[in-house]
Amino acid sequence: MGSVQDGPSLLAADLPIAPLRTIRYSALQSGDPKEVGRLLEACIHEGFFYLDVTDGEENPAVLQKVDEMYDFMREWFGQPDEVKQEVLSSNYTDGYKPTGIFAGVRENTRDAYETLKVSHMGIKKGATNPPPYLQVRKGMFESYLEACNQIALRLLICLSSQLGLDKSEALENFHQDKEDSNSTLVLLKYPYQEPDLESHQIGHNKHTDIGSITVLFTDQWGLQVLSAADQGQKEEQWKFVEPRRGCAVINVGDSLRFLSQKKLRSCLHRVVPAKGQTVDRYTIAYFLRPSNSATFVDSNGELVTATNWHDRKYEVFKATHADQRKDTILTGGLEPISI
Question: Which fold has domain 8-324?
Answer without folding.
Answer: Jelly Rolls (2.60.120)
